[in-house]
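Slide 14.
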Amino acid sequence: MEILYKRHVDYLKKVKIAFSRNFANEIDWSDRLIGIKGTRGVGKYTFIFHYINDNFSRDKRYLYVSLDDLAFTEKTIVGLAEDFIKRGGKVLFLDDVHKYANWLQKLKRLLYVLSTLVPLQPNVNKLSRDLETSRETIMNYLNYLQDGRLIKLLHADRYRTMKRPDKIFLDNTNLMYAIAPENVNKGNLRETFFYN
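Slide 15: predicted structure.
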């Protein structure tokens, strides 16, 4: 972890900030997950460091990590986040997520599995074994898919949203035909339609 903090400080020293981007004020920085996307070279990296420099400077509770770092040939994002939190970390800035091995493939595989089974009462432990990842990662992926409006999670008790959902639906019936057309079932189609 210390080497990642050292790199964070080195990155801060390297970035030359010539101007401020006004849209930083339009972002709700209290959200739990914020994604900044754009084509290569438009200034995402500089924007992140400008924000870090203006707000957190050298505070170790805030850390920038590039996922193309060699540390991630063995370390996982979940492992990093756990270590970071144990050390009192508050905000983790992850860059070059597209270079992190297999994250997109696992997310796509989970979506495909769900689309062949929905609506279903999920067995999160089985899904984690099938995708060879942790139960916590599966729960995070489910929340990401819901945030991306690809699935809907039904909780019988609305206050239990951090627990396993009671049922999972695709966000709309058209996704059934787009993702797994060979597995479309009229009963599932109706149930998904009426839930949505």
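Speaker note: Strands lie at 62-66, 91-95, 151-154, 167-170.
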